[in-house]
Amino acid sequence: MVRALPLLGLLALACGTEYVDPIQRLPVASADACSNWLTESECLADAAHGCSFQPNAVGCKMSDPECNPGSCRAGDAFVRSRPAQGLWLLGEPYRFVGTVSWGIAWGQCQVNTLPDQQTALERTFDDLVDLKLTVLKVWAFQSYAGTSGTDYASFQRVVAAARRAGVRLIFVLENQYEQDCTSGPPRNDSWYASGYASPYGNYALSLVDYARDLALHFRDEPTILAWEILHEGHTSDFDAMSAFTERMSSAIRENDPNHLIILGTDNGDSPATDRSQSPSNYERLHDHPAVDLLDAHDFAAPDTPLTAAMQDVATIASSLGKPIFAGATAVELADSSAASFSQRAARLEAKLHAAFAAGYVGFLVYDYIPDWQDVTWSFDTRSEDPLAGPNGVFVRNAIPSP
Length: 402
Hints:
Number of strands: 13
Structural class: alpha/beta
Number of helices: 11
Strand order of the largest sheet: 10-9-8-7-6-13-12-11
Oligomer: single chain
Order of helices and strands: HHEEEEEEHEHEHHEHEHEHEHEH
Strand content: 5-15%
């Protein structure tokens, strides 16, 4: 039997507007029972369906009254590394484009262009929604966890804001550079041999205890993509750094089976991380079983899409069967002219394309600072910037999350 179109449908067709059958507009029951829940408490209470409260698949802004604080879904909510197969999330291959915002946790160092953490969180993650960026790397040093080293309230606020915006986080646990937002002595052979294993500087906890406790606290939080033990770690004594890697990565893995672990070294520029032998020290460090993912940085040769060092470490990662991402890529502005903005955008886009072509699974541009003033590597969403402005490099190269 042929069903007649309703009168409104005929009028719409006569006016040239596409007719939509009202029956087709009825909601379709979701195959995922977890999607029925809108709050975190309801979601986590549904253990029967394996529900978890995850980042929104498409991020939304804090000011949006219809923006949910997260998404309740079934399935494995954590990003996983598969040998020689890259990263996977919810049964699909996973790649990402993102950025770095060191001071968003608002501790010893903070985003000095904004008055408080809540303002910084709203501005930062709303901007990331506009830019369609899905990963953010931040400092998560003990200096951001109160005098006890166990006050995670600031990190929890970062996680909540990221989840709403559809962003996953890489938390960096310590800095090679002791005068940069952290505490303690130089990160030399002595520190790698034993100094990190006891409280140092003005910290209440050793790095082992701090990392273990933080990982345990957030072990079930899918918004965190990975723990990165160090920012650009390096020293002279390979044996000391290798033992450090084994102890730190094992301590995290024993208390958190869910999140990826990154060692976080330089690109092989110190004796302990040297990549000139076969197998190289760089390869041996990243061959530790609990190290899942490699991080490489590019602050050199702005007009070279893929430097020799970035290609070399990608080859090492491939030989290990482990994925690698570009954790900080920077091109400095020459000045604030339109020509300089355009040149930086073009150079960074070339580097992004070259990295993915070489097998990198992620690309983070250094660094996001809202309302930046000094002409350096920084960017924000100012409209005149073809990197992060409307329909800029980020938007054109966005990779949706599963």
